[in-house]
């Protein structure tokens, strides 16, 4: 030990690198700020002016938090970090819009073994760009250097967001009725769930991330790093269209389509999903074939091409499809909602997921692709 003793930098924490990262990212963060954001970048807390919502009769705050999961391992392996921000924002704000709430602001948290300013800035720029797409302000965040806990080039990301909705405009199971129609919105790919399975399959097959896959038209790594589609603005626009008669949304994340759809159905109703209504994107077929993954396990883990579902009134499907087409969101009728009775009970029903005691979902038919 030198006579000068140990420093924070010698212990593995470089505060100057953290300051440089902030300088590199702050312009991207500022672009998400409207007049409601006070104080700019760098404060101890983000401030958001709610005066514009003073006319709300009974405002409710909605909040959500999430991360990206082991998809970060793909980003780290490829040394590509700007797309992870879309995954993070999509996982968080698209849970909020499910109840009809407008996401107002978001904060992020990055833990890393070593702050590389350019890498941290890439991550945050991606988060900020996705917040712009979602119409959400990025009002603050934290980058924590954890030497000895994480390897120098390892990191993890998480985020939280807050939204607002009128109490009498909350969407969900209370609005869903017998005869409602399910309108699916296409995913952009794997999104940010099930990567522990996907990575295990890739390892089992001995495929390298640089391998070109004809079905993808690009490398395996590029396909696996495809950013999550951020639905927030489009979903809110659809909910505001009275002709679409939106009763509920479900965000298809961990647990797959059936498990998440069951969460927004009331007890006594069953959603019948027709597998033959869409072509499953090639990435899901490749995962199935490479790993010999059973269909039930795929359905309980991956989105299989459906990232969001709107439950609309029996006369609202055409208007919903027209609105989504105008917004550039690929969509189709996925199935219908009916009464659950003895004739629809059986082993193929999915119910009681995520701790929610509500309706049920049954998948029928076979996939086209």
TrEMBL record:
Location relative to the cell: Cytoplasm
GO function terms (MF aspect): ATP binding; phosphoribosylamine-glycine ligase activity; phosphoribosylformylglycinamidine cyclo-ligase activity
Pathway the protein acts in: Purine metabolism; IMP biosynthesis via de novo pathway; 5-amino-1-(5-phospho-D-ribosyl)imidazole from N(2)-formyl-N(1)-(5-phospho-D-ribosyl)glycinamide: step 2/2
Gene Ontology cellular-component annotations: cytosol
All copies of domain PurM-like N-terminal, residue ranges: 61-165
Predominant subcellular localization, coarse grouping: cytoplasm
EC number: 6.3.3.1
Cytoplasm as UniProt keyword: yes
Domain of life: Bacteria
Keywords from the named record: ATP-binding, Cytoplasm, Ligase, Nucleotide-binding, Purine biosynthesis
Single Gene Ontology BP annotation: 'de novo' IMP biosynthetic process
CDD domains, per the entry: PurM (cd02196)
InterPro entries: PurM-like_C_dom, PurM-like_C_sf, PurM-like_N, PurM-like_N_sf, PurM_cligase
Catalyzed reaction equations: 2-formamido-N(1)-(5-O-phospho-beta-D-ribosyl)acetamidine + ATP = 5-amino-1-(5-phospho-beta-D-ribosyl)imidazole + ADP + phosphate + H(+)
Ranges where the PurM-like C-terminal domain occurs: 177-338
Entry-linked Gene3D superfamilies: PurM-like C-terminal domain, PurM-like, N-terminal domain
Family affiliation: Belongs to the AIR synthase family.
HAMAP family in alphabetical order: AIRS
Protein name in the entry: Phosphoribosylformylglycinamidine cyclo-ligase
Organism phylogeny: Bacteria, Bacillati, Actinomycetota, Actinomycetes, Micrococcales
């Amino acid at each position: 030990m030198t006579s000068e003793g140990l420093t924070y930098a010698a212990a593995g924490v470089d505060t100057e690198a953290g300051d440089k990262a902030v300088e590199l990212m702050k312009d991207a963060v500022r672009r998400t700020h409207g007049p409601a954001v006070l104080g700019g970048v760098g404060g101890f807390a983000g401030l958001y002016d709610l005066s514009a919502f003073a006319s709300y009769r009974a405002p409710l705050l909605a909040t959500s938090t999430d991360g990206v999961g082991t998809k970060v391992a793909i980003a780290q392996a490829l040394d590509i970090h700007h797309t992870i921000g879309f995954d993070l924002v999509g996982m968080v704000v698209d849970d909020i819009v499910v109840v009809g709430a407008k996401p107002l602001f978001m904060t992020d948290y990055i833990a890393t073994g070593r702050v590389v300013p350019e890498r941290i800035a890439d991550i945050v720029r991606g988060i900020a760009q996705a917040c712009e797409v979602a119409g959400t302000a990025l009002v603050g965040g934290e980058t924590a250097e954890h030497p000895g806990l994480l390897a120098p080039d390892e990191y993890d990301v998480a985020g939280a967001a807050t939204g607002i909705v009128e109490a009498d405009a909350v969407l969900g199971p209370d609005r869903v009725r017998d005869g409602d129609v399910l309108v699916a919105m296409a995913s952009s790919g794997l999104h940010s769930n099930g990567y522990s399975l996907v990575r295990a399959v890739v390892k089992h097959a001995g495929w390298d991330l640089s391998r070109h896959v004809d079905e993808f038209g690009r490398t395996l790594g590029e396909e696996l790093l495809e950013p999550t589609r951020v639905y927030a603005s489009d979903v809110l626009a659809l909910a505001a269209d009275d002709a679409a008669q939106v009763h509920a949304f479900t965000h298809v994340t961990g647990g797959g389509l059936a498990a998440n759809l069951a969460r927004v159905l009331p007890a006594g109703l069953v959603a019948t999903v027709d597998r033959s209504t869409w072509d499953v994107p090639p990435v899901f077929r490749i995962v199935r074939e490479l790993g010999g993954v059973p269909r039930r396990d795929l359905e309980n883990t991956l989105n299989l091409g459906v990232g969001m579902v709107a439950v609309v009134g029996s006369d609202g499907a055409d208007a919903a499809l027209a609105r989504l087409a105008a917004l550039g969101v690929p969509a189709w009728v996925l199935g219908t909602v009916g009464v659950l009775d003895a004739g629809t009970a059986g082993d193929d029903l999915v119910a009681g997921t995520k701790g929610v005691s509500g309706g049920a979902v049954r998948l029928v038919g076979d996939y086209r692709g």
